[in-house]
Design goal:
The complex is a heterodimer of chains A (111) and B (112).
Chain A: E1 4-7, E2 10-13, E3 19-25, E4 31-38, E5 42-51, E6 54-57, E7 65-66, E8 76-78, E9 87-94, E10 100-102, E11 106-110
Parallel strand pairs in A: 2-11
Antiparallel strand pairs in A: 1-3, 3-8, 4-5, 4-9, 5-6, 7-8, 9-10, 9-11
Chain B: E1 3-7, E2 10-14, E3 19-26, E4 30-38, E5 45-50, E6 56-59, E7 62-66, E8 70-75, E9 84-92, E10 101-102, E11 106-111
Parallel strand pairs in B: 2-11
Antiparallel strand pairs in B: 1-3, 3-8, 4-5, 4-9, 6-7, 7-8, 9-10, 9-11
Classes of the chains: A mainly beta (111), B mainly beta (112).
Chain lengths: 111, 112
Protein backbone atom coordinates (compact mmCIF):
# COMPACT_ATOMS: atom_id res chain seq x y z
CA UNK A 1 0.00 0.00 0.00
CA UNK A 2 1.31 3.44 -0.97
CA UNK A 3 1.81 5.47 2.17
CA UNK A 4 3.68 8.09 4.12
CA UNK A 5 4.55 6.98 7.64
CA UNK A 6 5.39 9.35 10.47
CA UNK A 7 6.59 8.52 13.96
CA UNK A 8 5.75 9.15 16.67
CA UNK A 9 2.06 10.00 16.40
CA UNK A 10 2.04 11.80 19.74
CA UNK A 11 4.90 13.38 21.64
CA UNK A 12 5.12 15.46 24.80
CA UNK A 13 8.53 16.93 25.54
CA UNK A 14 10.17 19.65 27.57
CA UNK A 15 11.65 22.89 26.33
CA UNK A 16 15.15 22.48 24.96
CA UNK A 17 15.21 18.70 24.64
CA UNK A 18 16.21 17.75 21.11
CA UNK A 19 13.78 15.56 19.21
CA UNK A 20 13.36 14.01 15.78
CA UNK A 21 10.15 13.16 13.97
CA UNK A 22 10.70 10.52 11.32
CA UNK A 23 8.98 10.35 7.94
CA UNK A 24 9.20 7.60 5.37
CA UNK A 25 7.47 7.09 2.01
CA UNK A 26 7.26 4.00 -0.19
CA UNK A 27 6.17 5.68 -3.45
CA UNK A 28 9.64 6.52 -4.76
CA UNK A 29 8.78 10.22 -4.86
CA UNK A 30 11.60 12.70 -5.22
CA UNK A 31 9.78 15.59 -3.55
CA UNK A 32 8.97 15.60 0.17
CA UNK A 33 7.93 18.35 2.56
CA UNK A 34 6.93 19.16 6.12
CA UNK A 35 3.93 21.23 7.20
CA UNK A 36 2.59 22.36 10.52
CA UNK A 37 -1.10 22.89 11.18
CA UNK A 38 -2.31 25.38 13.76
CA UNK A 39 -5.86 26.51 14.57
CA UNK A 40 -6.75 29.64 12.64
CA UNK A 41 -3.55 29.49 10.57
CA UNK A 42 -4.07 26.39 8.50
CA UNK A 43 -1.25 24.33 7.04
CA UNK A 44 2.09 26.04 6.48
CA UNK A 45 5.20 24.66 4.84
CA UNK A 46 8.29 24.30 7.04
CA UNK A 47 10.89 22.71 4.75
CA UNK A 48 10.95 20.82 1.51
CA UNK A 49 13.32 18.54 -0.37
CA UNK A 50 13.51 18.05 -4.10
CA UNK A 51 15.78 15.03 -3.89
CA UNK A 52 18.53 13.39 -1.86
CA UNK A 53 20.82 16.00 -0.30
CA UNK A 54 18.68 18.88 -1.68
CA UNK A 55 16.60 20.74 0.90
CA UNK A 56 15.30 24.28 1.26
CA UNK A 57 13.28 26.46 3.58
CA UNK A 58 9.53 26.88 3.36
CA UNK A 59 7.51 29.64 4.96
CA UNK A 60 8.15 28.88 8.65
CA UNK A 61 11.60 27.23 8.95
CA UNK A 62 12.84 28.90 12.17
CA UNK A 63 13.68 26.39 14.87
CA UNK A 64 13.64 23.37 12.56
CA UNK A 65 16.19 21.34 10.62
CA UNK A 66 15.80 18.58 8.08
CA UNK A 67 18.00 16.11 6.27
CA UNK A 68 17.54 13.93 3.22
CA UNK A 69 20.18 11.22 3.07
CA UNK A 70 17.93 8.63 1.47
CA UNK A 71 15.13 9.11 -1.02
CA UNK A 72 12.48 7.49 1.19
CA UNK A 73 13.26 9.29 4.46
CA UNK A 74 12.89 12.93 5.45
CA UNK A 75 13.21 13.49 9.22
CA UNK A 76 12.28 16.74 10.94
CA UNK A 77 14.63 17.81 13.73
CA UNK A 78 13.89 20.24 16.55
CA UNK A 79 17.23 20.88 18.22
CA UNK A 80 15.87 23.06 21.03
CA UNK A 81 12.07 22.89 21.04
CA UNK A 82 10.07 25.76 22.48
CA UNK A 83 6.39 25.97 23.47
CA UNK A 84 5.53 27.90 20.27
CA UNK A 85 6.43 24.75 18.33
CA UNK A 86 3.51 22.93 19.89
CA UNK A 87 1.53 21.95 16.83
CA UNK A 88 0.29 19.19 14.55
CA UNK A 89 2.96 18.23 12.04
CA UNK A 90 2.50 16.54 8.69
CA UNK A 91 5.01 15.05 6.33
CA UNK A 92 4.02 14.89 2.65
CA UNK A 93 5.40 13.20 -0.42
CA UNK A 94 4.54 14.49 -3.90
CA UNK A 95 4.38 12.80 -7.29
CA UNK A 96 5.46 14.40 -10.56
CA UNK A 97 2.02 15.99 -10.93
CA UNK A 98 2.73 17.80 -7.66
CA UNK A 99 -0.06 15.91 -5.89
CA UNK A 100 0.87 15.67 -2.24
CA UNK A 101 0.15 12.62 -0.09
CA UNK A 102 0.24 13.22 3.63
CA UNK A 103 1.21 11.13 6.63
CA UNK A 104 -1.06 10.58 9.63
CA UNK A 105 0.40 13.48 11.56
CA UNK A 106 2.44 13.97 14.72
CA UNK A 107 0.89 15.92 17.55
CA UNK A 108 3.72 17.61 19.44
CA UNK A 109 3.37 19.34 22.79
CA UNK A 110 6.33 21.27 24.22
CA UNK A 111 6.01 22.19 27.89
CA UNK B 1 1.70 36.47 -1.92
CA UNK B 2 -0.60 33.57 -2.68
CA UNK B 3 -3.91 33.63 -0.83
CA UNK B 4 -6.73 31.13 -0.48
CA UNK B 5 -10.06 31.90 1.16
CA UNK B 6 -12.63 29.22 1.78
CA UNK B 7 -16.30 29.74 2.57
CA UNK B 8 -18.31 29.02 4.51
CA UNK B 9 -16.15 28.15 7.53
CA UNK B 10 -18.73 25.57 8.60
CA UNK B 11 -21.72 24.02 6.89
CA UNK B 12 -24.40 21.75 8.27
CA UNK B 13 -26.49 19.72 5.85
CA UNK B 14 -29.17 17.11 6.14
CA UNK B 15 -28.47 13.82 4.44
CA UNK B 16 -29.39 14.20 0.77
CA UNK B 17 -29.26 18.01 0.81
CA UNK B 18 -26.87 19.09 -1.95
CA UNK B 19 -24.65 22.16 -1.60
CA UNK B 20 -21.38 23.75 -2.66
CA UNK B 21 -18.19 24.85 -0.96
CA UNK B 22 -16.27 27.82 -2.29
CA UNK B 23 -12.53 28.43 -2.64
CA UNK B 24 -11.39 31.80 -3.95
CA UNK B 25 -7.72 32.36 -4.65
CA UNK B 26 -5.11 34.82 -5.79
CA UNK B 27 -1.87 33.47 -7.14
CA UNK B 28 0.66 34.63 -9.65
CA UNK B 29 0.70 31.82 -12.16
CA UNK B 30 -1.48 28.91 -11.10
CA UNK B 31 0.15 25.53 -11.58
CA UNK B 32 -2.69 23.63 -9.92
CA UNK B 33 -5.58 23.84 -7.47
CA UNK B 34 -6.03 20.93 -5.10
CA UNK B 35 -8.88 19.70 -2.94
CA UNK B 36 -8.28 17.58 0.13
CA UNK B 37 -10.49 15.99 2.74
CA UNK B 38 -9.31 15.88 6.35
CA UNK B 39 -10.87 13.79 9.10
CA UNK B 40 -10.24 14.73 12.75
CA UNK B 41 -6.75 13.76 13.88
CA UNK B 42 -5.71 12.53 10.42
CA UNK B 43 -3.66 13.79 7.54
CA UNK B 44 -5.27 15.47 4.52
CA UNK B 45 -6.47 12.98 1.92
CA UNK B 46 -6.01 13.96 -1.73
CA UNK B 47 -9.24 14.32 -3.73
CA UNK B 48 -8.70 16.33 -6.94
CA UNK B 49 -6.30 18.44 -8.93
CA UNK B 50 -7.57 21.10 -11.35
CA UNK B 51 -5.17 22.82 -13.71
CA UNK B 52 -7.10 25.24 -15.89
CA UNK B 53 -10.30 27.27 -15.94
CA UNK B 54 -13.27 25.26 -17.11
CA UNK B 55 -11.88 21.97 -15.89
CA UNK B 56 -14.12 19.66 -13.84
CA UNK B 57 -13.37 16.48 -11.89
CA UNK B 58 -15.79 14.05 -10.24
CA UNK B 59 -15.51 11.38 -7.60
CA UNK B 60 -18.60 9.70 -6.22
CA UNK B 61 -20.78 12.47 -4.76
CA UNK B 62 -18.12 15.17 -5.20
CA UNK B 63 -17.52 17.38 -8.20
CA UNK B 64 -14.86 20.08 -8.36
CA UNK B 65 -14.88 22.97 -10.83
CA UNK B 66 -12.41 25.75 -11.54
CA UNK B 67 -12.63 29.31 -12.84
CA UNK B 68 -9.86 31.91 -13.05
CA UNK B 69 -10.65 33.20 -9.56
CA UNK B 70 -12.34 30.41 -7.66
CA UNK B 71 -13.14 26.75 -7.35
CA UNK B 72 -16.27 25.03 -6.15
CA UNK B 73 -16.66 21.65 -4.55
CA UNK B 74 -20.20 20.48 -5.21
CA UNK B 75 -21.58 17.77 -2.95
CA UNK B 76 -24.58 15.93 -4.33
CA UNK B 77 -26.91 14.04 -1.98
CA UNK B 78 -24.34 13.91 0.83
CA UNK B 79 -24.20 11.12 3.38
CA UNK B 80 -23.05 11.31 7.02
CA UNK B 81 -19.73 9.74 6.02
CA UNK B 82 -19.00 12.84 3.92
CA UNK B 83 -18.63 14.80 7.17
CA UNK B 84 -15.08 16.17 7.30
CA UNK B 85 -13.06 19.33 6.81
CA UNK B 86 -12.48 20.08 3.13
CA UNK B 87 -9.29 21.93 2.31
CA UNK B 88 -8.44 23.84 -0.84
CA UNK B 89 -4.84 24.61 -1.81
CA UNK B 90 -3.10 26.34 -4.68
CA UNK B 91 0.30 25.83 -6.15
CA UNK B 92 2.11 28.48 -8.14
CA UNK B 93 4.74 28.12 -10.81
CA UNK B 94 7.81 28.69 -8.65
CA UNK B 95 10.56 26.54 -9.96
CA UNK B 96 10.88 23.22 -8.22
CA UNK B 97 9.08 23.97 -4.95
CA UNK B 98 5.77 22.16 -4.96
CA UNK B 99 4.60 24.27 -2.04
CA UNK B 100 0.88 24.24 -1.38
CA UNK B 101 -0.82 27.34 0.04
CA UNK B 102 -3.86 26.16 1.93
CA UNK B 103 -7.12 27.78 2.90
CA UNK B 104 -8.41 27.32 6.43
CA UNK B 105 -10.98 24.79 5.34
CA UNK B 106 -14.73 24.23 5.47
CA UNK B 107 -16.02 21.96 8.22
CA UNK B 108 -18.87 19.97 6.73
CA UNK B 109 -21.33 18.13 8.95
CA UNK B 110 -23.97 15.92 7.37
CA UNK B 111 -26.75 14.87 9.71
CA UNK B 112 -28.68 11.62 9.13
Amino acid sequence: EAQVTQNPRYLITVTGKKLTVTCSQNMNHEYMSWYRQDPGLGLRQIYYSMNVEVTDKGDVPEGYKVSRKEKRNFPLILESPSPNQTSLYFCASSNDRAEAFFGQGTRLTVV
Amino acid sequence: EDQVTQSPEALRLQEGESSSLNCSYTVSGLRGLFWYRQDPGKGPEFLFTLYSAGEEKEKERLKATLTKKESFLHITAPKPEDSATYLCAVQAWRGSNYKLTFGKGTLLTVNP
